[in-house]
Structures are given as structure tokens and as C-alpha cells.
Amino acid sequence: MKRQKKIVLAYSGGLDTSIILKWLQENYDAEVIAYTADVGQEMNRKKIIKNAKKLGVKKIIIQDLKNIFVKDYVYPMIRGHALYEGVYLLGTSIARPLIAKDQIRVAKKFKAYAVSHGSTGKGNDQVRFELGYHYFGPKIKIIAPWRIWKLKSRTDLINYAKKHGIPIPKDKKGAPPFSVDDNLFHTSTEGKVLENPKNSAPEFIFQRTNSPEKAPNKPSFITINYKNGDPVGLNGRKLSPAKVLDKLNQLAGKNGIGRVDLVENRFIGIKSRGVYETPGGTLLLIAHRAIESVTLDKNTMHKKDEIMPRYAELVYNGYWYSKERFKLQKIVDLKRNKVNGSVKLKLYKGNITIQSRQTSSNAYSMKKVSFEENKTFNKSNVERFINFHKRKLR
């Protein structure tokens, strides 16, 4: 008896991937395995399983990747201080490589001949997923429904869903919905009123941050503890990477921190407007720069700043697994073992203030910077230093 082929679909349980799941069953003589990566997004496990079973799926896999996501993807990126186009903390970009990697692991485990995703033909995510698929499973076929099917509009999708008895949320029967992506690191919102850059982002779209106006009237304080360049706890208490980020999200979100409204240049060549909420990530970025300021030397810090735009662009474009990103990561991490200590932050109505930096490192010398007369810094050398650089002006 001939064994049935298998396809592993990145499945969220929502309308679009439910339609894709049914479409794959109709158009390919294969068993569809529903795969969901839990990277901290808002999700209903029971609903995912129920919807998939209703559509005839026998194998449903929900993989908890939250700690791996923060430890092996978010933290290395934060060590690189990555900001795409100077603003975007890359919340969607950094999750896709991990999902792609684990989806291929599942495909190999069940000897699937193909993987599939629900990314649209205009977005960046199709690139990020497929570069990840290729890196870990170059011989596995990729099926991208949005680029090949005949469903051309939201109306076509709704009609297809009705035909096959796929539940349609009320907010998706009329106008196209907002496109929302979320994980433990961030939430992004695109589409509808946001497509016109002259429109202000309505308050109701924000899901994990208070507006600064509605933030508490009293400040909050948090101390982030570091070892080898990564957070290991808060306020002196050791916590897992996922728990650190979760608690920072709650605290920063409550205090109106982490909102970004950006018109960005997509990898495929068009501009798009997105509203991002990265509350905990914003704290991590600022605190990491603060702890490095008292633990790393000037040349190391400046080299990191020099390569950061390219590093961020590689992450944005889906090149997390590229040789170039690996090479830049080595530069980023060259002296991470020296980055130890703690940073205390004050959070108040959208603002972050550094309260203190503590470390046993001797990179920062109080004796040398003191305005009191001291013998640790030879000021007679300064004139020669200035004269040397005067010659460079000619």
C-alpha cells in the first residue's frame, strides 16, 4: 500500500490558515499536519485543536518555543542593539527564523515532502519563512498558497470559507481586518486606517501598552541583572528568559512604553506603515546599552554601533541564518563575558530614565574621571594628542 504524502502547515487556527488548510487538502493528495509554534502570541489552544480537527486534521502539533525564542533569538539580537531604519525593534522578523527551523524539524520527523505557510505575496514574512526552510530543509518543497491560488480578494476567501463550513469571525465579514502579528517580544498592527500615513493610529488598536496619558501617575522602578551580556533576573531574583521578558512587558506596557509608528521599506521593494508595541524589548535595549557603557571599552562599543545597521537589515530581510549574520554576531559577542552587573530603570508615562549602573568591571574608572586632582591620568599627554589630530585637518 502506497503511503500518503504529508504537508506540514504553519497553522494559527485563524481564518486564513484554516482556509489554506482546506485548500491544501483539496489541491494536493496529501495528509496535512497542522503545526503551531508558541512564541508567546495570544492564542487559544483548544480553539486551534478544535478547528483543525473539524477540518479533518489528524495530527496537530503545538510546540512551546518561548524560552528558546527569547534566549537564542531575542537576546542575541538585543546584544547587537538592532534597530531597523533606526526605529523598528524587529519583533516579527526575529520570530520567523525560529518558526521555520522548528517547522522543518517536524517535517523531517514525519517525513513530509512539503511545508506551507500563510504569508501573503506582498509581505516580508514569505521571504523570512522560505529562507529558513531552505537553510534547514533544502530538499523539502515549499507551498505558498497566496502566490499560486485563484482566491484574489477578501470576498473570495469569505465565500470559500462559507462553502467549506469554516467559521468566519464577525469582524472579518465586512472590511478587510487589521493584520496583526504578536509574540512574546512585540505586537504589530497594519492595514485599514493605518494604510494612509496621514491618519493617526486610533487608540483602540493598541493591545499591550497604555497611552502615556493613561499610565499611572507614580513611577515604577525595575532593576535588570546581567551575566555575560544577557538578563538573568529582575530585582536580584533569577528568572527564565521568557519570564524576564513577560514581566518587563507588563511593567513597561502599564507605563505607556514601547510604541512605534513607522513607515518602513520592505525587503521586496514597497513601503508599508506599521504600528508596533515592544514594551519589554524597549527596556532591554536601553538597559543593555547602559550596562555596556560601564563594562566595555570604546573600540568594542563603537564597532558594534558601526555594524548595527547592516546586522538589523539582515534580520529584517530574513538572513538570520546567513554567514554574514553569523560573522557579525561574533563581533557583537566578542566581549560579552565582560558585560555583568545591573541597571536600574525608572518608568514614567512613556519615559525611561536610567537610575543607576552597577558592575564589578574596571572599564569605568572613577579615579580617572574625577574632577579632583589625581595622578592616574597624565594630562601632559593631551597637548601631544591634540597636536597629532590637528595634522589630520590639513
Question: Explain this structure to me?
Answer:
The protein is α/β, with parallel strands linked by helices and 394 residues long. The protein has two domains: 5-69 and 95-174, 3-Layer(aba) Sandwich (Rossmann fold); 182-357, Alpha-Beta Complex (Argininosuccinate synthetase, chain A, domain 2), CATH 3.90.1260. 39% of the residues lie in helices and 20% in strands. It contains 13 helices and 14 strands. It has helices spanning 15-27, 45-54, 66-79, 91-109, 125-136, 145-148, 154-163, 241-254, 279-293, 298-316, 323-332, 366-369, 380-390; strands at 5-10, 30-38, 60-64, 114-116, 141-143, 179-182, 187-190, 220-227, 230-234, 237-238, 259-265, 271-277, 341-348, 351-358. The strands form three sheets. Strands 3-2-1-4-5 form a five-stranded parallel sheet, with helices on both faces. A five-stranded antiparallel sheet has the order 10-9-8-13-14, with helices on one face. A four-stranded antiparallel sheet has the order 6-7-12-11, with no helix packed on it. Helix 1 links the parallel strand 1 and strand 2 (30-38). The model has no long low-confidence stretch (mean pLDDT 93).
Helix-strand layout with pairing:
Elements: E1 5-10, H1 15-27, E2 30-38, H2 45-54, E3 60-64, H3 66-79, H4 91-109, E4 114-116, H5 125-136, E5 141-143, H6 145-148, H7 154-163, E6 179-182, E7 187-190, E8 220-227, E9 230-234, E10 237-238, H8 241-254, E11 259-265, E12 271-277, H9 279-293, H10 298-316, H11 323-332, E13 341-348, E14 351-358, H12 366-369, H13 380-390
Helix pairs in contact: 3-8, 4-5, 8-9, 10-11
